[in-house]
Q: What sequence folds into this?
C-alpha cells in the first residue's frame, strides 16, 4: 500500500508538472492574457467563424511585412495601400482569398490572408479544410506564400461582445463573405453524433484534428512526446486562471480528453514543444 507521503509527493510532482506547462506557455506568449475583454467562448466562436473562411476581395490589397491597418468603421489608408504596390499584390478585385490565421492583440484583431507574407512555401501547404492549421491540405491554387499579407482591425478599445458575423460586417468594404465556406462544407460531412458534439463544443475520443479544430478552434499550445513507442501529441486549450483542456492524439485520432483548472494537480508531464 502506498504511503500518504508517497501520494503527497506524487501530487506535488503533478502540481509542478502542470505549473511548468503553464509557465512555458505564458513565457512564449501562447496563453499570455491579451488586454481584450472577450470571453473564452467568444474567442472560440470568432476562431471557428473566421478561420479557413473564404471571401472575395472587393478592393486592392497589397502585400506587407507588417499588418495593414484597417479601422473598425470600415475606413483605411487607401492611398497608402496603393503606394505599397511595389511590394506586390496580395489580392485584386474579385480574387478569392482565405483567412489562414486569427490573432487577438488587445484592441486589434489580426487576420492572416493566404498564409501571410512568408517566403519558401506555398500558402496552400499549410491551409486545410476545416478550421485551418491542421488537417487535409487544400492544395487548390498556385499562390506562393509570399503573396499573402495580414490585416489588423483596430477597435480603439479593448475588444468585447464581438461575434464572427459582426467582424465580417466590419470587413465588408474589403471583402465579401457571401460564399459557402470551407467550414460549412466540412460540417456537412459529419455524422449526426459528431455534429452534436461540435455544437456542444465537446471533444470526444476518436475525433481527428479537423474535428477538434472545428469544435474548439486553434489550440493555445501543443506538446509532443514518444511513450512506449507511440507518438503522442497534446493540444492544450485555455488560460489561467480557469479551465484547461488537454486533448491527446495518438496518430491522427484523439485518445484522451482531460479537463482541469489551473493550479490543481495533474497527471500530465511537460512535453517537448511542437514547432
A:
Amino acid at each position: 500500500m502506498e504511503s500518504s507521503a508517497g501520494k503527497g509527493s506524487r501530487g506535488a510532482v503533478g502540481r509542478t508538472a502542470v505549473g511548468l506547462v503553464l509557465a512555458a506557455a505564458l513565457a512564449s506568449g501562447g496563453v499570455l492574457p491579451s488586454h481584450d475583454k472577450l470571453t473564452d467562448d467568444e474567442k472560440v466562436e470568432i476562431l471557428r467563424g473566421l478561420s479557413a473562411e473564404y471571401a472575395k476581395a472587393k478592393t486592392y490589397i497589397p502585400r506587407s511585412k507588417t499588418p495593414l491597418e484597417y479601422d473598425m468603421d470600415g475606413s483605411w489608408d487607401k492611398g497608402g495601400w496603393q503606394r505599397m504596390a511595389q511590394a506586390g499584390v496580395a489580392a485584386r478585385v474579385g480574387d478569392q482569398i482565405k483567412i489562414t490565421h486569427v490573432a487577438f492583440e488587445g484592441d486589434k484583431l489580426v487576420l492572416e490572408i493566404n498564409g501571410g507574407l512568408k517566403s519558401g512555401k506555398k500558402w496552400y501547404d499549410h491551409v486545410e479544410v476545416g478550421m485551418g492549421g491542421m488537417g487535409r491540405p487544400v492544395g487548390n491554387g498556385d499562390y506562393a506564400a509570399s503573396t499573402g499579407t495580414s490585416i489588423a482591425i483596430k477597435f480603439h478599445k479593448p475588444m468585447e461582445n464581438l461575434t464572427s458575423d459582426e467582424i465580417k460586417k466590419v470587413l465588408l468594404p474589403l471583402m465579401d463573405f457571401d460564399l459557402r465556406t470551407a467550414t460549412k462544407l466540412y460540417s456537412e460531412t459529419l455524422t449526426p453524433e459528431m455534429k452534436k458534439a461540435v455544437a456542444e463544443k465537446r471533444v470526444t475520443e476518436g475525433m481527428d484534428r479537423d474535428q477538434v479544430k472545428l469544435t474548439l478552434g486553434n489550440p493555445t499550445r501543443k506538446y509532443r512526446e514518444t511513450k512506449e513507442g507511440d507518438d503522442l501529441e497534446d493540444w492544450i486549450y485555455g488560460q489561467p486562471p480557469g479551465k484547461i483542456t488537454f486533448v491527446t492524439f495518438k496518430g491522427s485520432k484523439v485518445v484522451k480528453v482531460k479537463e482541469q483548472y489551473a493550479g490543481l494537480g495533474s497527471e500530465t508531464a511537460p512535453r517537448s514543444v511542437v514547432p
Confidence is low (pLDDT under 50) at residues 7-33, 119-146, 264-275.
